[in-house]
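Example (one chain per record):
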Amino acid sequence: MKFFNKVKQRREALSIRLSNQGKPEITPEALAEVVGCSRVMIWKIENGTSQPGVELALKISQALGCEPWDLFPIKPVDHPFIQTKLGAPAPIDPADRPGIFVPLPMLMTN
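Predicted structure:
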């Protein structure tokens, strides 16, 4: 199974920008060292054969200067208990971050 992500695209774009400024590129090895995982794990993530856990995804996004949802697509949660007061599904768009978390009392009201 292939997992879609934009880690390689983001790393390469950042590397080009840095090399244009005369700074060293960000190699998979350098990224692995910064985030505290193996070079092989970065390679697997970039090639879509593995997905990082939450902690590693956060570290990778921080190292690449972006948000996790910029790198890893977030699928909508389609569950009847995850709804807002109006009965509409809770928003999952990164622009609506406060809507991702639905407080428990909100779920219990009818």
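Caption: The chain is about 50% helix and 0% strand.
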